[in-house]
Amino acid sequence: MINRRKVIQSLAALPFAGSLLGTNSLAAQSKTAAVVSSLRRDFFKELGLRTFINAAGTYTSMTGSLMPKEVIEAISYGADEYVNLDDLQDKVGERIAELLECEYATVSSGCFGAMSIGMAGILTGKDPEKVKQLPNTEGMKNEVIIQESHTIGYAQALTNVGAKVVKVKTAKQLEKAITDKTCMLWFLNAHTDQGEIKWEEFIALGKKYNIPTFIDCAADVPPVENLFRFTKMGFDLVAFSGGKGLRGPQSAGLLLGKREYIEAARMHTPPRGETIGRGMKVNKEEVLGMLAALELYLQKDHDQEWKMWESQIQLISDSATSVAGVESEIHVPKYANHVPSLRIRWDEKKVKISPNEVRKQLREGHPSIQTVGDSKSVGMTTWMMVPGQERIVAKRIKEILSSAV
Ligand SMILES: *Cc1c(COP(=O)(O)O)cnc(C)c1O
After folding, report:
1. One domain for residues 119 and 259
2. 8/45 Cα distance (integer angstroms)
3. Which among 62, 65, 111, 188 is the best mutation to test ligand 1's pocket, defined by most ligand atoms within 8 Å of the CB?
4. Residue 338 region, left (φ>0) first, then alpha (ψ -120 to 50), else beta?
5. Model confidence over 20-31: pLDDT tens digits?
């Protein structure tokens, strides 16, 4: 009721609205509707939440990425009709597989969800009794081998469904660790550099022992080529986040690869209920949103977007380094979040403020700006910003740094 009253209050504030509210004619009503719909309800403000400029990147806590209007249109399209959920996933899976030139695909609940259902499918195959049994893996092969340097909290997606993780450092150790319980080899693309075993050797080991290989590529678009590269290279399953570089729904993701494994993964997903994956539901709106986001991403002019990011980062960098004593470094992470990124440092004898304090002032200022960093530097990217916001960020960082000189 409060909200309706608010709308009426704001309508009453409009010069011509009083007369509309007083009449009952159809024409007047439709005019009222037009006025109401043009007054966009400000939910975040109503809830007392501050929005912010995202100069940090694709963080779940900051709600990932913003969806383009084509994605939002796909989501609202989906909201107006009923459709059979399995049929929808079948068709969208085929479409995505065609677009990404891989054997099969499905829309999952994020990359984490893709890892869990992919793992569950490998544990059980298509045996309905085994599907019901998870996370109890009695009578199943349940060991997953990963490189020690690929250890990451997200591997919980694998153990959650019942798998046991076995860690190795070298290819030799990996071969030794293979037992009659080994069911999968898991690779974390973000840590490719840290691991001794690289992609091709990892896949070759999987093939040699007839064990499926899975690669987590959650934050590995851009580059767009990665959407094709790892299935073609020979990984049996490849997972991406939907709400990072792809700018789809944050709670969606992609599982790509071998049909037999993806069909087994689907056995664990809704509408089926007696499964470990029931809580990892992807609704029809998100399935369509994910498809639309992927199509849009594939059509995008990636070179042009890259140039835009570079010039945005340069603008902020120039602005920050115009303050005496401030230095910056533009870098591109090789794996994961592969976008132009900025690190700003300064001599605290000349600029008398700590990086944490700068970040706090950016966050608490108007508008609020979220960044990353540590005790030595402030870090930024522009890829999750709305174009134009880089000017605000450039101005604010200079203001804060120069006021500490
Ligand atoms: C973000 C991330 C995940 C989780 O992805 P969601 O899409 O949020 O479920 C898994 N692995 C890595 C390496 C990530 O960066």
Report:
1. yes
2. 17
3. 111
4. beta
5. 444 445 555 555
CA of 61 to the centre of ligand 1 (A): 12
113 Cα–ligand 1 center, Å: 9
Whether residue 111 has its Cβ less than 6 Å from ligand 1:
yes
Same domain, residue pair 317 and 278 = no
169: left (phi over 0), alpha (psi -120 to 50) or beta: alpha
Say whether 267 sits in a helix, a strand or coil.
coil
Which residue from 214, 241, 281, 282 has its CB within 8 A of the most atoms of ligand 1, so it is best to mutate?
241
Please confirm whether the linkage preceding 340 is cis (ω < 30° from 0): no
Residue 335 in contact with ligand 1 by CB distance below 6 A? no
- Give 278-310 pLDDT, tens digit per residue: 999 999 999 999 999 999 999 999 999 999 999
Strand ranges for 161-265 from DSSP E: 164-168, 182-188, 213-216, 237-241, 253-257
**Ligand 1: distance of its center to the CA of 319 in Å?**
33
Instruction: Decide whether any atom of ligand 1 lies within 6 Å of the 358 Cβ.
Output: no
* The predicted structure's pLDDT at residue 39: 83
375: domain CATH number? 3.90.1150.180
Average pLDDT over residues 248-261: 98
Whether residues 381 and 251 share a domain: the answer is no
Q: Are residues 254 and 110 in the same domain?
A: yes
Ligand 1 geometric centre to CA of 241 (Å): 6
Domain tally for the chain?
3
pTM of the model: 0.90
C-beta 253 within 6 A of ligand 1: yes
Q: Cα(233)–Cα(229) distance, rounded to whole angstroms?
A: 6
Which residues form the domain of 226?
82-299
Residue 261 inside a domain? The answer is yes
Is residue 61 domain-resident? no
